[in-house]
Structures are given as structure tokens and as C-alpha cells.
Design goal:
Blueprint: H1 2-12, E1 36-39, E2 42-45, H2 57-75, H3 80-91, E3 95-96, E4 100-102, E5 105-111, E6 119-124, E7 131-134, E8 145-152, E9 158-165, E10 171-177, E11 182-191, E12 197-199, E13 202-207, E14 225-230, E15 239-242, E16 251-256, E17 262-268, E18 274-280, E19 289-292, E20 299-305, E21 308-313, E22 321-326, E23 341-344, E24 350-357, E25 360-366, E26 371-376, E27 382-386, E28 393-396, E29 405-412, E30 415-423, E31 428-434, E32 444-452, E33 458-466, E34 477-480, H4 498-501, E35 506-510, H5 520-524, H6 531-547, E36 556-561, H7 563-574, E37 581-585, H8 604-607, H9 613-622, E38 635-641, H10 650-661, E39 669-674, H11 685-703
Parallel strand pairs: 34-35, 34-36, 36-37, 37-38, 38-39
Antiparallel strand pairs: 1-2, 3-5, 4-5, 5-6, 6-7, 8-9, 9-10, 10-11, 12-13, 13-14, 14-15, 16-17, 17-18, 18-19, 20-21, 21-22, 22-23, 24-25, 25-26, 26-27, 28-29, 29-30, 30-31, 32-33, 33-35
């Protein structure tokens, strides 16, 4: 009976309806200014420069007018309310994280179903009575406060946590006592991109100088600093640990070893490449010394055994390997390879991460974009692969030396997040907590295909759809990718995605170059002057889906966020004929000026800068704002948020203004600007549901498809 129902549903899903996209839309007037810039002899007009001033009254008025048009359009879609209702039904299930042991207590987060933010609970022992540890839903009236755990004191008595408001990257750090969840007096402001590395009666953290009023969400962030905060004191009593007034554009992070012997200072000039300094905390007034020089490789300290460090790095191994060095016999002026021992050598698969617990190392390899976990000794003996339930993504396996067991979470496209308990000694895996989302995985199928890109490179792609779907070229299809910053897009479960799949939709993820799915060579193949490979890979994915009759140009939608938003903007400009609908989200759209806002300077290592002649020419060729033409574009709905201080909304503002200026054809070119939201992390569930309902409604409506509920 169930199979019959789904087959009927897929037939109904392609019924045509009148499409409002064919009606003319009156867009808000967007003024133009006579702004021109000279880049190495090339004059570039920037008529919408004024939209960069996010707090100006005229910009705020412009955003209100744009939203009025967008939501006026969305309000007329007849099935939008039904889509939102269905999403609320699907997402109304209990979600729990894996527990984390803190001494005799365990912490975990839980969402009962439709709570805006998950609540953190704690128990004494695994079977103790759950009590609320912190509830971010009570930290704001509208669910826009989000929390993250930053670090736990070595004596397990205190925990530092960060609060983000309205989606901003800015954090306020506070401290709780673990045994009774009481907040302490500590309050630290203007923190960004920081953990809390505990040492004795306090912790190290990173912050920026207080920004000028009115510039908090857009001004360039410079002069990151490391401070030490002593528990129970005010922030003005904190001690400055490290700064570099000669290098304003660097990030700093800290790590203290479990035995509190060493402090490591991670330094980065952007999103790739690290330098590590260290000091011996057992020696009074010890100064920082260079451990690994930057910034050609990535290094991560896994653990130490006395003066011996265990490190994961791509120095000498593009797919990463594990090495050890002895600090007592180490000279940073000499090559690392000449002084290290290779504990676990490089393999053909990417070593994505390494964790330590119970005196063992847990190595997470990506083999064709799927997790494979192996347990190793510190001497490099492989003690075997840990059994996982399917092809998918596993995360966890971290703890302390005394731990006898660890927890991990596994999920995949049709496998909801499930928590497993792993016994280190006997390598036994047992199910600990299963998601109770209401759907039948057996009704869906997942394929992994390898398609050729423009230059012949084989690119992997996952394709998910309902069993029984006819490959007739008429299936609504949503193609997603990211393609940058060494980020791996691995199989993951999304309950919200079911609202699309159950309507006969096909969902595809292309693991294009620029990511790290196949190591640093894959990453470099899609960065800097090789960025066009990313767009070619994505376009080829769309062509594959069409050639294999999964869909056609009339039913193909594309989506990406942040760097993926840049991807969508670029490929829409390059191949507007290939796609029916496009969703560029919080995208980097002005490639000539991105480095002038907040932390955009950190992306220069990935994109290059318009301050350099060669990179300018490359960026100018694909910058979405600068490559819009007078051609017929697909239906476009840009999404951004007013508190996005990662990729400032001016990128999206200038892009949609340019699209609307060059409006050819009647396909809508709209922008949906979320209020009191940011780049995406910590977004309240209610806002997530609203946005997802609008995206799916816009997609189906512009394809002329009526979803059935």
C-alpha cells in the first residue's frame, strides 16, 4: 500500500499550474552613483557602492522595499502555507546530541521538536536525572540567541560558553559551575573566532579591540589578540598574552595540553596555512618559540606524551599523515621531515581528522566522500577499522586518556543521526540513541556517480530520490555544492529535505574541486587561478543530470551558500540557459571588494586579491556582480541576513540590484533579507522553517509544479 501511495504522489507532483513568474514584477527603484575604480588600467563602475553602508537610513529603507516585493510575491503562492505546515510536521521530532563526559557528569543537547534552540542538559553519570544546564531559548525573546561550549577546566569544575546574538559572529563568553549549572560573574565581550583553553584558574581566549559604534557588523576586523582571563575577575583585569601590531590581518587560537604542560598558539593569515608557536607552562616566564613555521602547510596538535607531540599535518603528505616530534631534540629552523617520526603514513584516501581518547588514536578517513574510522596505537599500530552501519558520515571519538569508551554520531542522506557507544578495549559498537523522525528510509535510494568535468576530471556526486521515480527529464531537481576552502561536503541527513524528496524531488550534491574530499590537490585544483574549475565542475554536474534524464533545464534548480553562493552567482551568469531556478545564499558576490569587510581579508589565500594585477584579472572574469549581462536569467531568489558579519549582506544587495537593472524576461529576481539573523549558524528553527518553506515554494512554483500534502 505504501509503495502505491508514493507512486501516485510522484505522478501528481508534475501537474502544471499557472506560473506567476510570467507576470511582470515592479522592483523597487535602486539609485546609481557615479563611482568608478581604476584596477591596473581597467575602469570598473560600482554604481551600487552606497549599499555597502548597512546602517544608513536609505539602505535600511531599500531592504524594506525589497522584502515587501519578495514577500508580496511569496504570499501569492497558493501552496506556501501547506509547505510550511508540512515542514513543521516533519521537523517536530526529538533530536539529541552525543553525550560529553565532564568528570562525573555528562552533558548533551536536546530539542523536543520545534524549539528554536536546543537545550543543554546534564546528568550525574549516564543514567542520572536530566537537569537543564543552559537554555538559550530564555536568553532572547525570539530564539535568536545561540550558545556553544568553548572549553572545560582541567579539574572539571567550570565550563566556558559563548553566546551569539542574532546570528552575528561576535560572542560574549560566560562561565558556569558544572555541578550546579550556576553562572559565575565572568563576562567577556568582543570575542570572535575563539575557544577557551583552560589553564590553572582561568583560560586563554581570542578577541578583537572594541569596534567603533555603528561599524560592528561591517568594518574590517584587525589586530586579533590572545588574552588570559582569571576566573572571578572582570575583563579589564585580563592579561594580554600575544599580539602582533605589525600583522593586523591574522587569526590567533590557543590550545593547552591535557597535562597543562604546553600552550600552543595557532597563527593563520587566512583560511589555509598555519604557523604554531609554543611555550612551556611549567617554566616561569617562558617565552613563545616557533614550533612550525607558516604558512605553507596545516598543522594540528593531537596530543602529547611528555615532550613528545603527536601531530596531524599535510607537510610532506597532501592527504595528511600523523607524525611525532620530541621537543627536547627539535630545531624549528630545520625541515620538519628531518626531525619527525611518521606514526601513520599517508594513504590514497584523505585523512580528514584525528582524535584521541583512552590512550588510542582514532583516524577518520574519507574514501570516496564516506567516513572510515580506524583505531591506532600511539606507536602507529593499526588495531582495525570500526564498523559503521552504512555509507555516510561519522563524527566524535574524542575524549581523555582515562576514558574507557567514547561516543560517536553517524548519519547519511536517508539515515537519521544515530548515536553509538564505542568500547575502546574490545572495539564493540552499540546503538545508544536513535532518531525517531517519521519517515521510512526504505522508500528512498541514494546513488553515487562519477561524471566527467570539462577537462575530463572525474567528479563524484550523490543523487537522492524516492524509489520508483521515473527518469523522464521532468523531475524537480535541486543541485547543491560548495567548492572551496578545503571544505568536505559529506553525506548528511536533513529532515527538512524530506519535504522536497517526498514530492518526487531529486536532490544532488556534487563534490566539486575546491573542497578537500580528495586531499590538498583537490582543494588547490579549485582555488586562486584555478577557480574556474569549480564552476566547470558544477555546470558539468547539471549537464549530467539532464543527459541522464533525472531532470531537464526546465526542472533544474541550484543552491549554494557563502562560497557556494558565489558559485551559484557565477554559474548563473555563465550558463543562464542551463537552470530554471537559482538560490544563491549569503554569497561572496563582489570579488573585487570582499576583502575590505569584517574578516573577508582571510579569504585572500583562497581567492586572491584585486590588489594584485594577475588576481584582479581572474576575479573580474567571474565576479557575480561584475558579470551580469542583458540575457534571460532563471528565476533567482537571493537569501541573506541583516546581521551577517561573515559575508556582509552588501554582497547580495549589490548583486540583486545589478540583476534587477539588467532584467530581461519575466523570471523573478528577488532578494529575501532575514532580520535578526546572520550567516546561518545558530539560526532559530522557526526562521529556518520559514526560509525553507519559501525556498521550496519558490522552486516548485517557478517550475509549474504543484506539491501535494
Amino acid at each position: 500500500m505504501k509503495k502505491t501511495f508514493f507512486l501516485i504522489l510522484s505522478l501528481y507532483a508534475v501537474i502544471q499550474i499557472p506560473v506567476m513568474a510570467q507576470e511582470s514584477i515592479k522592483y523597487p527603484a535602486t539609485k546609481k552613483v557615479a563611482q568608478e575604480d581604476n584596477y591596473f588600467g581597467t575602469i570598473v563602475k560600482d554604481p551600487y557602492r552606497w549599499l555597502e553602508n548597512d546602517t544608513a537610513a536609505e539602505v535600511i529603507e531599500w531592504t524594506k522595499n525589497q522584502n515587501a516585493v519578495t514577500f508580496g510575491y511569496l504570499d501569492k503562492i497558493p501552496f506556501r502555507a501547506g509547505m510550511k505546515k508540512r515542514l513543521n510536521q516533519i521537523l517536530n521530532y526529538e533530536r539529541i546530541s552525543a553525550p560529553t563526559r565532564i568528570g562525573e557528569y555528562y552533558l548533551y543537547s536536546k530539542n523536543d521538536g520545534l524549539q528554536n534552540q536546543s537545550i543543554t542538559y546534564y546528568t550525574k553519570g549516564l543514567t542520572g536525572e536530566p537537569k537543564v544546564f543552559m537554555d538559550p531559548n530564555k536568553m532572547s525573546s525570539d530564539g535568536t540567541a545561540a550558545v556553544s561550549i568553548l572549553g572545560v577546566s582541567h579539574d572539571k569544575k567550570y565550563l566556558a560558553y559563548g553566546i551569539n546574538q542574532s546570528g552575528s559572529d561576535w560572542q560574549t563568553i560566560k562561565v558556569k559551575k558544572v555541578e550546579d549549572a550556576t553562572d559565575q560573574s565572568d563576562v567577556l565581550n568582543w570575542v570572535k573566532f575563539s575557544g577557551a583553553s583552560w589553564y590553572k584558574n582561568g583560560f586563554f581566549y581570542s578577541r578583537y579591540p572594541t569596534p567603533a559604534k555603528g561599524t560592528e557588523l561591517s568594518a574590517k576586523n584587525e589586530f586579533h589578540q590572545v588574552w588570559y582571563h582569571e576566573l572571578g575577575t572582570s575583563q579589564d583585569k585580563d592579561k594580554l598574552v600575544y599580539e602582533d601590531k605589525n600583522s593586523p590581518l591574522r587569526y590567533y587560537g590557543t590550545q593547552v595540553t591535557e597535562d597543562e604542560h604546553y600552550l600552543f598558539l595557532y597563527i593563520s593569515q587566512g583560511t589555509y596555512g598555519s604557523e604554531i608557536l609554543y611555550k612551556d607552562l611549567t617554566k616561569e616566564n617562558d617565552t613563545f618559540k616557533v614550533l612550525f613555521k607558516g604558512f605553507d602547510f596545516e598543522y594540528g596538535i593531537i596530543d602529547n606524551s611528555g615532550s613528545t607531540l603527536f601531530v596531524s599535518t599535510n607537510d610532506g603528505a597532501q592527504n595528511n599523515h600523523v607524525i611525532s616530534i620530541d621537543l627536547n631534540n627539535y630545531d624549528s629552523s630545520k625541515p620538519v621531515a628531518s626531525q619527525c617520526k611518521i606514526v601513520v603514513p599517508e594513504t590514497k584516501s584523505l585523512l580528514e581528522s584525528v582524535t584521541a581518547a583512552g590512550g588510542k588514536l582514532f583516524l577518520n578517513y574519507l574514501q570516496d566522500v564516506s567516513s572510515h574510522i580506524y583505531q591506532y596505537t600511539y606507536s602507529g599500530v593499526n588495531e582495525g577499522e570500526i564498523s559503521l552501519p552504512a555509507i555516510g558520515t561519522a563524527a566524535g571519538f574524542d575524549g581523555e586518556k582515562e576514558d574507557k569508551e567514547v561516543f560517536f554520531t553517524f548519519n547519511s542522506f536517508t539515515y537519521p543521526p544515530t548515536i553509538y557507544r564505542y568500547s575502546i578495549a574490545d572495539k564493540k559498537v552499540t546503538e545508544y540513541k536513535k532518531s525517531n523522525v517519521a519517515f521510512n528510509p526504505a522508500d528512498y535510494t541514494t546513488e553515487q556517480v562519477f561524471y566527467p568535468s570539462k577537462d575530463g576530471t572525474k567528479v563524484p556526486m550523490f543523487i537522492v530520490y524516492k524509489k520508483g521515480t521515473m527518469m523522464n527529464g521532468k523531475n524537480p531537481t535541486l543541485l547543491y555544492a560548495y567548492g572551496g576552502f578545503n571544505v568536505n561536503i559529506t553525506p548528511s541527513f536533513s529532515a527538512g529535505r524530506l519535504a522536497f524528496l517526498e514530492q518526487g524531488g531529486v536532490y544532488a550534491i556534487a563534490n566539486i574541486r575546491g573542497g578537500g574530499e580528495y586531499g590538498e590537490a583537490w582543494h588547490k585544483g579549485g582555488m586562486l587561478l584555478n577557480k574556474q574549475n569549480v564552476f566547470d565542475d558544477f555546470i558539468a554536474a547539471g549537464e549530467y543530470l539532464i543527459n541522464k534524464k533525472y531532470t531537464s533545464s526546465d526542472f533544474l534548480a541550484i543552491q549554494g551558500g557563502s562560497n557556494g553562493g558565489l558559485l551559484i552567482g557565477a554559474v548563473v551568469n555563465q550558463r543562464p540557459d542551463l537552470f530554471k531556478v537559482a538560490f544563491p545564499a549569503v554569497g561572496v558576490m563582489d570579488m573585487l571588494r570582499y576583502h575590505k569587510f569584517t574578516v573577508g581579508w582571510g579569504w585572500v589565500v583562497e581567492y586572491g586579491s584585486s590588489d594584485d594585477a594577475e588576481n584582479f584579472k581572474n576575479l573580474y572574469k567571474y565576479s557575480p556582480v561584475h558579470t551580469v549581462k542583458d540575457v534571460k536569467y532563471p528565476a533567482v531568489m537571493v537569501t541573506t541576513a541583516d546581521h551577517d558579519d561573515r559575508v556582509v549582506p552588501a554582497h547580495s544587495y549589490k548583486y540583486i540590484a545589478t540583476l534587477q537593472e539588467h532584467n530581461t524576461g519575466n523570471n523573478p529576481k528577488l532578494i529575501r533579507i532575514d532580520m535578526k539573523a546572520g550567516h546561518g549558524a545558530g539560526k532559530p528553527l522557526s526562521k529556518t522553517i520559514d526560509e525553507l518553506a519559501d525556498i521550496y515554494s519558490f522552486l516548485f512554483y517557478n517550475m509549474g509544479v504543484t506539491p501535494k500534502y
